[in-house]
């Protein structure tokens, strides 16, 4: 049905249509989140990211209980890097490039240990796992067709990092006509000021990219 539930949110209540909603969990990968991974090796404080793992796991349990489709993304490239533009590979730390051997296997390469999703957020059989070569989830993936096939118009977002892959994916989804809600305590950045600014940007100007709310507000509104 198209019956909507009003979820209190920034900048005003989000009209969630449960029968047309999917959960999107962005890049909850060991290499970004776990101590000893790629993110850690680059000098980032991963404790901020490990701290949201339980909230993302609770959100997954909630979505599964509701029967929502669940889409997990992984930032990843083919082993031959044919889907990694040189401009992406050459960016940043010359000692740790995409495809190089990192602390948890080859960096951002499909099938490597660090590319896997953290244990507590592991996809279940039947859930969609999307390998995406970009920061956003639409570039070079089948996700638009997958969502159309499922009849989804509303997307609830979680994952890392807020201002990079989560925000890019939300902006891409917003341009494609999806109504997007970010779960504030189920997303995180290495930089707290970037997380706060990303949420401000998303919700500014009457929700120019979408809405944001805490997990408990979503679950209470749907109870
Ligand atoms: C993600 C990144 N997943 N920060 N990647 O946000 O490069």
TrEMBL record:
At the highest ranks, the source species' classification is: Bacteria, Pseudomonadati, Pseudomonadota, Alphaproteobacteria, Hyphomicrobiales
Keywords assigned? Hydrolase
This chain belongs to the protein called Nicotinamidase-related amidase
Enumerate the Pfam families for this protein.
Isochorismatase
Q: In terms of domain of life, where is this protein from? A: Bacteria
In this protein, which residues make up the domain named Isochorismatase-like?
Answer: 21-209
